[in-house]
Amino acid sequence: MELSNDDLRLPSRLPDILGDEDRLSLKSSLHRHIIERLEEDGLMFEMERVELHPHVQDYVRSYLAEHEIRKGEHDTGQLVAELLDEMIGFGPLQSLLDDPGVDDILINGPREVFVERRGKLERAPLRFINDHHVLRVIRRMVAPLGRRIDESSPMVDARLPDGSRINAIIPPLSIDGPCLSVRKFRCDALGMEDLIRGGALNMEMSQFLVGAVRDRLNILVSGSTGSGKTTLLNVLSQNIGSGERVVTIEDAAELQLRNGHVVRLETRPPNSEGQGEVTARDLLKNALRMRPDRIILGESRGGEVLDMLQAMNTGHQGSMSTVHANSARDALMRVEMMVTLSGFSATETLIKQIIATSLDMIVHVSRLPSGKRLITDILEVQDVADNLIRTQQLYRHAPEEDEFRSVDGLSRTLQQKMERYRTC
């Protein structure tokens, strides 16, 4: 990763204690120096980090001695690690990507880096040299994926090889410099026991949800951004039986099903010429031809929701999806709005009936100001009366006592439906 002439320059002599600006200048100059030395020594080949480390360490020590910069062994080792990140990693981001405690990384220009830990945002003690530095890291991320980002294509969505999702947007669309959002992928998928320990639900609710999945109820998980919708969907989907064929459809593959018979499909954005896009709706229509027992749609956000409802209502019971909404009731309104905007020509009453006969349950998740994520409502979807979709609240979270409460029992209709699949 070569640095341009726009990068900060190192003064001829630096003080023993380096400030932030001087440290960035030192890293910039060291990076250029090391690239030149590697080229001179004929070492500019594909090398693993462990092979490159001793060479970079020697170059750094000789450079510091030549410029009479006195640094301790710890500081020198840190400089070597950061320079290796620049050369074969993702620069300042690498340490955050390697930190298992970080869930999200948010970069708002070169001087503002934030991370989310345990549901709470905090400022990270990291920064980039300038806008060019941020842009180079973004390009290094997306280039191996066949994607590009520049003034003619200033936005990009992609998935890293480890499963992490990234979104980047650069000037002129982002006013304060290149912005990058990284949603890290968890290799160790959470289970229901983890959610119980974390206070997301209680034992009674977990047993009910596990039974609802096994008895093939159609479930919609709703919540705001970052509330844990995909995490809950992943946990629920782990209870699908091993004898069922499941097709998953996602913008970025995150679900980690354990039933052994899973077909994973992923959407594809258009290329730089605007061609080749494959949408969730395209994949959903194709999935119906793949003999699935269940379909799991990572997120319903457009016309694909109509196809998903039709699949739920035509022999693919036990299917699941998520939707952005502020409450469980709002989720029904969102679904109704998306069906209407999909171009489906039907009366308002018919659309409500399709929704009511397709969905069995809505599980709403929320993120509290403390960062805690939990299930705040579980609703049974019943039928349509007086042009309204009737629901029955099964469980709710009482914030005043911070406890989960059972409200109403299942309707006889839904009980019979669960019993029918249980005996099949």
TrEMBL record:
| Highest taxon above the source species | Bacteria
Classification via Pfam families: T2SSE (PF00437)
Please give the InterPro entries that the UniProt record associates with this protein.
AAA+_ATPase, P-loop_NTPase, T2SS/T4SS_dom, T4SS_GSP_E_ATPase
CDD domains listed in its UniProt record:
VirB11-like_ATPase (cd01130)
**What residue stretches are annotated with the AAA+ ATPase domain?**
215-380
For this protein, the record's PANTHER family field holds: TWITCHING MOTILITY PROTEIN PILT, TYPE II_IV SECRETION SYSTEM ATPASE
Q: Which family does it belong to?
A: Belongs to the GSP E family.
Name this protein carries in UniProt? CpaF family protein
